[in-house]
Amino acid sequence: MFNVEEKKKKTSKLLRLKFESKEKGDPRAHFGSGPQQKHRTFYELRTYCIRPDQNAAFLKLTNEKIHLRTAHSELVGYWSVEYGGLNKAFHIWKYDSYAQRAEVRATLAQDPAWVSEYLSKALPMLTSQDNEVTYMVPWSRLQSPLQEGGVYELVSFQMRPGGPAVWGKAFQAAINAHDAPGYGKLIGVFHCEFGLQNRVHALWWFESPDHRAEIRHTAHHDARVVAAVRNNIVNLDSQRNQLMLPCPFSPLK
After folding, report:
1. From residue 79, how far is each of 46, 120, 135, 242 by CA, in Å?
2. CA 240 to CA 170: how far, in whole Å?
């Protein structure tokens, strides 16, 4: 009987310690999107592939009619891809809940101005559309660039299966090793909920492509950055970088 009681006490203590570690901010528990869902806010990342002969026309039309869309929900940023992809538009939308997004989509479908003045003209210009639902990781907050203008880099990391419990700590350290010394301005880090699992996007700002190249060269000679990247890369399956130009109507510019 004594052994049984002792076992129960040990089990209870382990459960209590596990709970307390979460309350104190255990990075393995708080990196993932779970805690963010308590606040419900999420970000939809959209990528449109545009017909090569229609790229300029699509961006012009969107510049003229985007107000019909932003009247219904918040646009975070809208960019054209300059390097790492051709004839692509990338944009981020913020929603307070899935219910809000569903309501916005239903309202847009019944908006005659949106359908006739934009949607019916824009869709034939596209070859494909893709979207992801993401949550901002708890240790990141949406930031503004240091000044208007400049360029943005979207770095998409495809991490190995296992989730943040496996790779979260090393990934955060690698991002912070670039952010803390000022090797670029970190705008936000987004963890994918719907789309490819174990994918994380880091959005950075630089003054110019040449400024970005100079900073990267310096960072590659920083022992702290090298060590952090080396620790993270063992959990990395692939990485894609895109350099993007903010559109004139983009809130982030």
Report:
1. 11, 21, 20, 11
2. 19
Q: Is residue 5 part of a domain?
A: no
Between CA 168 and CA 196, with CA 238 as vertex, the angle to 5 degrees is: 70
Whole-prediction pTM = 0.84
Q: Which two tokens stand for residue 131?
A: 């979207």
- Paired tokens of 77: 């940023």
In angstroms, the CA 113 to CA 15 distance is 57
The DSSP letter of residue 119 is: I
**Total structural domains within the chain:** 1
Q: How far is CA 151 from CA 55, 76, 78, 106, 205, in A?
A: 19, 15, 12, 34, 6
* Residue 152, domain extent: 33-246
* Residues facing 47 on adjacent strands: 90, 130
Q: Residue 174 belongs to a domain with what CATH number?
A: 3.30.70.100
Is residue 244 within 8 Å of residue 80, measured between CB atoms?
yes
Predicted confidence pLDDT, tens digits, the chain (253 residues): 445 455 445 544 444 443 344 334 444 444 444 444 556 899 999 999 999 999 999 999 999 999 999 999 999 999 999 999 999 999 999 999 999 999 999 999 999 999 999 999 999 999 999 999 999 999 999 999 999 999 999 999 999 999 899 999 999 999 999 999 999 999 999 999 999 999 999 999 999 999 999 999 999 999 999 999 999 999 999 999 999 999 999 999 9
In a domain, 3, yes or no: no
C-alpha span between 239 and 56 (Å, rounded): 28
Instruction: List 44's β-bridge partners, or say none.
Output: 93, 133
Is there a domain that residue 253 lies in?
no
SS3 105: helix
The residue among 31, 42, 23 whose CA lies nearest residue 163 is: 31
Tally the residues of the chain: 253
